[in-house]
């Protein structure tokens, strides 16, 4: 008879490799991306500096591990079709080694089309070659942005939207297969602005996240518009694949403290990927505190992976709620309006949020315990501010 240990070894060897590896994007990916701040100006030096600053600022410890190079790193293909980097990125393998040496991961960007949004070289017709190249560099994450593929769609299927959509799915599936063939785990991020209800088919083409809207910018109105657009999408998010309302603008533009908190809190409620997009070399203590708030990140990263839904809306005031793995709940009351609102009369809608009587509330941004909470809890919310509550039995 085989001993228990032999049996265990045999079982371990027999189990597929995938079962032994942690699930990719089991919680929403966290990191930093170059686009929102550097756009087309990003260089190798900026990426190294971002990696250094993620570590020194404490953001890495808070969970931000992906350092993602967005568009404009691409050079030209040689006679064999091998893509080269441009002058801004002299040695991608060395850059990946540097980022990895800090305990971080490196992400990159391409398009299923012949060119990217910023008109750099895309992967069209070179999918496997590019995926192999990324794997040889040690890339951990790919954002794959439709852009140039629209030209192919329009050429091959003019005015035939269903055919164009079928082509789009096939193009995303093609890169998914190419990545799988490399054998290197890479987070696969779809960027096609939510077309054709991507949340319905994203998981089938291997997506770990998919953009649900057009681009964010560092204004409260745009952030609020995108955030509110996520209503109804909660059921499509789950461990392994997430709705992506675009990268964070926390710390960018003229967003004030209330606005940065509302943005961060809402993205956490939405179980969004948290990809900071600010200039890390100008991090203020205030912005660092918003980005690294442990309780907010714990909501985003909750292992249950249940994205918040809107449970109440009246004019500019909305209440969003989500259940958490330990049976507790998070509620976010947001004032999207331009003036202070007294919430007398607006109930918290605790029952709809699954909160029973006698539950205790913790005000996360205010950092205070409120004790047992009642549905008619009275408070005021300044313009663009929010009350983020963690509720426990
Ligand atoms: C699109 C994407 C952005 C960014 C740019 C880069 O607009 O939506 O997030 O990647 O392309 O060119």
Which tags fit this structure?
393 residues; alpha/beta; TIM Barrel; Immunoglobulin-like; 2 domains; 14 helices; 32% helix; 20% strand; globular; disordered N terminus; binds alpha-D-galactopyranose
What is the gist of this entry?
By secondary structure, this protein is of the alpha/beta class. It has two domains: 4-300, Alpha-Beta Barrel (TIM Barrel), CATH 3.20.20; 309-392, Sandwich (Immunoglobulin-like), CATH 2.60.40.
Please explain how this structure is put together:
The chain contains 14 helices and 18 strands. The chain folds into two domains: 4-300, Alpha-Beta Barrel (TIM Barrel), CATH 3.20.20.70; 309-392, Immunoglobulin-like, CATH 2.60.40. The chain is an alpha/beta fold and 393 residues long. Mean pLDDT is 94; it is low at 1-15. Helix 11 (220-228) packs parallel to helix 12, helix 12 (257-269) packs parallel to helix 13 (285-291) and helix 12 (257-269) packs parallel to helix 14 (294-300). It is 32% helix and 20% strand. The strands form four sheets. The chain has an eight-stranded parallel β-sheet. A six-stranded antiparallel β-sheet has the order 11-12-13-18-15-16, covered by helices on one side.
Shape: globular
Terminal CA distance reads 51 Å
CATH class identity of the largest domain: Alpha Beta
Structural class: alpha/beta
CATH architecture of the largest domain: Alpha-Beta Barrel
Which percent bin holds the helix content?
Answer: 25-40%
The set of bound ligands, ions and cofactors reads: alpha-D-galactopyranose
* Main sheet summary: 8 strands, parallel
CATH superfamily of the largest domain: Aldolase class I
The count of helical stretches stands at 14
Round the Cα radius of gyration to an integer and report it: 22 Å
